[in-house]
């Protein structure tokens, strides 16, 4: 399973659910007594669940360092999504966000979620193949699309799962009730915050692309193609910084997330 830093999780999930929580309506959070957030990371979704739920929310993640951050908001416990450290029927809702896309067998995880739930299981998963980028730097959209394609070809899990999570739910023995779409939009515009400046710097140095080099080379991309992409990427990053200095840089990114909800249909 991929590992993520606290800074990465905060950067990619910042502002999610601030504009609308309508896609979470099928979870009936106001009627829940005990909710488990699996793969909670630093607790971004956990905080939303606490705000919307009438009952207790518990966070669970395999990364103990991330749990230190989540623990500031909810009770937490370290545990593997495939071997949850809870007895059967411990919760009436088990939910995860951007977790299944990082697992080789999503259905196995969902079956484990169903084991500890008496009622609902829900997954909030993106389709990373349908991300849309608009930038004031002309080359940014093209290069990001190229890098994304190379990454998708090399990754070993289905990071485009999104709306197709229904199949994994059915395989896990859950009755699929509903799937709703939520579009998470991230924008960068003046005045630029520290996170935006860090992203720009990582583009200019190629550090961000370097993080995914090994994965890209697992697909159709070879070393020469990667080096050429990285060279263009760094030039694009310098253009971003130049526009930032003139307060001209603007960027928007829209990522579709799909909230799939299933009901436990009997003893697991």
Automatic annotation (TrEMBL):
<dbReference type="Pfam" id="PF08241">
    <property type="entry name" value="Methyltransf_11"/>
</dbReference>
<keyword id="KW-0830">Ubiquinone</keyword>
<dbReference type="GO" id="GO:0008757">
    <property type="term" value="F:S-adenosylmethionine-dependent methyltransferase activity"/>
</dbReference>
<protein>
    <submittedName>
        <fullName>Methylase involved in ubiquinone/menaquinone biosynthesis</fullName>
    </submittedName>
</protein>
<feature type="domain" description="Methyltransferase type 11">
    <location>
        <begin position="36"/>
        <end position="116"/>
    </location>
</feature>
<keyword id="KW-0489">Methyltransferase</keyword>
<dbReference type="InterPro" id="IPR013216">
    <property type="entry name" value="Methyltransf_11"/>
</dbReference>
<keyword id="KW-0808">Transferase</keyword>
<dbReference type="GO" id="GO:0032259">
    <property type="term" value="P:methylation"/>
</dbReference>
<dbReference type="InterPro" id="IPR029063">
    <property type="entry name" value="SAM-dependent_MTases_sf"/>
</dbReference>
């Amino acid at each position: 399973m991929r590992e993520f830093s606290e800074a990465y999780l905060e950067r990619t999930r910042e502002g999610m659910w601030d504009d609308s929580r309508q896609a979470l309506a099928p979870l009936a959070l106001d009627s829940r007594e005990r909710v488990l957030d699996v793969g909670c990371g630093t607790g971004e979704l956990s905080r939303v669940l606490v705000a919307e739920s009438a009952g207790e929310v518990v966070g669970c993640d395999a990364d103990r360092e991330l749990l230190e951050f989540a623990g500031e908001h909810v009770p937490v416990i370290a545990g593997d999504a495939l071997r949850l450290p809870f007895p059967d029927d411990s919760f009436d809702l088990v939910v995860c966000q951007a977790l299944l896309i990082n697992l080789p067998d999503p259905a196995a995880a969902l079956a484990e979620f169903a084991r500890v739930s008496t009622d609902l299981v829900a997954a909030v998963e993106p389709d990373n193949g349908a991300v849309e980028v608009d930038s004031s730097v002309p080359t940014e959209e093209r290069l990001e699309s190229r890098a994304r394609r190379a990454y998708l070809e090399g990754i070993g899990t289905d990071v485009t799962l999104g709306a197709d999570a229904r199949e994994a739910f059915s395989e896990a023995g859950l009755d699929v009730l509903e799937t709703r779409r939520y579009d998470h939009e991230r924008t960068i515009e003046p005045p630029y915050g520290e996170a935006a400046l860090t992203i720009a710097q990582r583009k200019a140095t190629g550090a961000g692309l370097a993080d995914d080099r090994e994965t890209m080379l697992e697909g159709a991309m070879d070393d020469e193609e990667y080096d050429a992409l990285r060279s263009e990427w760094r030039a694009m990053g310098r253009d971003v910084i130049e526009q930032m200095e003139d307060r001209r840089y603007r960027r928007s990114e829209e990522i579709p997330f799909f909230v799939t909800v299933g009901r436990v249909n009997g003893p697991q």
